[in-house]
């Protein structure tokens, strides 16, 4: 049986789309996306899931009384769908150690820089590219890594470097990093982890 995957999203969901496209092209040989979990009811990613015929659930932190309740609701949706592996694809909520321990070596995340640069608490989305541009680095990129209790601190699975060009704005750079790195390495890393987990079951 293929490894059952949940993809966690909060916004546009272009990385989710890359995973869906990869799956439709037959690249996700050892995994199957069975659920999309969104932290926001208005995330465009939810429409992408619907178009692809993938079940989705929204768990909004605001509506939960606590971090524990937020995570309990997520876990119950994951259990119902039989999820074995989680891909964080632009998921903007922090998960507690309680949650990450439960899925140890089963959660991966894509981050839009070459870790350990421009990462950690408060570094997400465009802020990462703003920081890279204001530091003046000439090369940035993206990283896929396992998720543990330290934000962006888990073992690195794959990285891809991307050039910074004169005149780049955070938006232009974000798009280049997505196109040249994230949308390619995230699906490949997801397949590699899904394969390892599938082999572990047999
Ligand atoms: C992506 O660039 C992803 O790497 C980043 O948010 C964007 C989500 O875009 N994630 C982080 O910064 C996590 N620390 P998407 O919703 O279009 O995939």
**CATH architecture field:** 3-Layer(aba) Sandwich
Instruction: Quickly count the helices.
Output: 6
Largest beta-sheet characterization: 7 strands, mixed
Determine the CATH superfamily: Formyl transferase, N-terminal domain
Radius of gyration: 16 Å
Lateral strand order in the biggest sheet = 3-2-1-4-5-6-7
What is the total number of structural domains?
1
The low-confidence parts are none
Structural class: alpha/beta
Terminal residue distance? 9 Å
CATH structural fold name:
Rossmann fold
Bound molecules: glycinamide ribonucleotide
Textual characterization of the structure:
- The chain has 202 residues and is an alpha/beta fold.
- It has a single domain (3-201), classed as Formyl transferase, N-terminal domain (Rossmann fold), CATH 3.40.50.
- Helices cover 40% and strands 21% of the residues.
- It has helices spanning 14-24, 45-51, 67-81, 97-102, 126-135, 170-201, and strands at residues 3-9, 31-38, 56-58, 85-88, 107-111, 139-146, 156-163.
- Strand 4, helix 4 and strand 5 (107-111) form a beta-alpha-beta unit.
- It is globular.
- Bound molecules: glycinamide ribonucleotide.
- The site of glycinamide ribonucleotide has 17 residues, from helix 1, strand 5 and helix 6.
């Amino acid at each position: 049986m293929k490894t059952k995957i949940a993809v966690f999203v909060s916004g546009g969901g272009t990385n989710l789309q890359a995973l869906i496209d990869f799956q439709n092209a037959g690249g996700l040989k050892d995994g199957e996306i069975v659920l999309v979990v969104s932290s926001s009811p208005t995330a465009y990613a939810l429409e992408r899931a619907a178009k692809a015929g993938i079940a989705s659930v929204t768990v909004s932190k605001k509506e939960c009384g606590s971090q524990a309740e937020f995570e309990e609701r997520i876990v119950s949706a994951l259990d119902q769908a039989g999820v074995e592996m989680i891909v964080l694809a632009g998921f903007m909520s922090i998960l507690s150690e309680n949650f990450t321990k439960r899925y140890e070596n089963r959660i991966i995340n894509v981050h839009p820089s070459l870790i350990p640069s421009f990462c950690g608490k408060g570094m997400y989305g465009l802020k990462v590219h703003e920081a890279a541009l204001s530091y003046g680095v000439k090369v940035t990129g993206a990283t896929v890594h396992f998720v543990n209790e330290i934000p962006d601190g888990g073992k690195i699975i794959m990285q891809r470097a991307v050039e910074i060009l004169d005149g780049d704005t955070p938006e232009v750079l974000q798009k280049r990093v997505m196109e040249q790195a994230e949308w390619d390495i995230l699906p490949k890393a997801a397949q590699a982890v899904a394969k390892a987990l599938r082999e572990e079951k047999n």
